What does this fold into?
Amino acid sequence: MAKLKIGVFGAHRGMTMIHQLLHNPDAEVTAICDKHRPSLDSAGKTAEDAGLKVALFENFEDFFSCDMDAVVLANYAHEHAKFAVRLLGSGRHIMSEVLTCATLAEAVALIEAVEKSGKVYQYAENYCFFNTTAEMRRLYRAGDIGELMYAEGEYIHDCASIWPQITYGERDHWRNRDASTFYCTHSLGPILHATGLRPIKVVGLEGQEQEFMIKLGARAGAFGMEMVTLENGAIVKSIHGGLKREPGSINYEMYGTRGSMETDRWDGGHLHVWRETTGNCVGTHEKYAPAFRLDGAEGTGHGGSDYFTTHYFVRSILGDEDAKAEAVDVYRAVDMCIPGILAYRSIVEGGPTLDVPDLRRPEERDRVRNDTFCTFEESAGDMYVSPTAAQWKQPVIDDAVYEEVRRKWLAGEPG
It folds into this structure.
């Protein structure tokens, strides 16, 4: 059987998927697209060194016209949905990097494009596939801690030092314009993936923007928080952003009716599990490093989690039902993403608790089909809101700030 022909849109983040695909027995990279020529050439050289000739494109339209069975979207995070919809309409399978969509309207369009096309759509929320979070999912589904009552997901990553390398001095780079609650799926996603529960309500909170980030061109709150109610009544605290902690914190806690699980904040890769046994408050505790579920994951990016997204994507296209069951489909992807969009609306409106629509249901889609509320002007139209919430002072950032960030990027200097 011929290998699947896969294109990668975005040569920077996409390098992780390119590395995985270069050694995949069932798929191969046939085309790569990126506007930044040095990144594109570097990706092409990596493929060439592996014995593969790959077409390289700076222009998306030329890339779109290539013979590809599937596309990995590793482009700017606020633009994934619009490209996914178009590519699905042309008969390509899609794996989308974080995030799913920028607006509720895009969420509806994405789901309907997947349904109409019949193609595989998977969301590359790699944090669901750490050895620890995958084990939490296995144990929860086995009933080890009972029914979820409360959970926490935490993704703390101070990006100040790498800001030049991830924003390039672009004033309108998405990272300079996203809402504090936008990038929520690293913290919320693994909880939803483990439990299979759907979010039904959300309220948003954020920390005030900080001078050290304003000096780098960022215009949003320092961190975002979503307090999410799930369909069984459980509460989840999801927090993410640039708080000062090194190394950054990737942490998850789940409290059930018969026990609890939590990752170790300082001893990475380890999981604590407490199970109630013979009576109330009587039980056992163990700490261990779970094994990865698949050979080949150890040593790959983001603590080994990057291996799984590409593996499950390829296997799902080939009809592997086990892979489909483990992967994040479009409905779960939207569940992970839209609480962040609504949380920022909650912040802007002064803190009300908002309903999270179930976009599996057509009648719920109709209610938000034209809802373009977001902090990206090109997507929001007349529903645009500033990434600096009304309660904070609106920063005025001179062009010289972005010129200096660009200089640091070109010179390879930290922020």
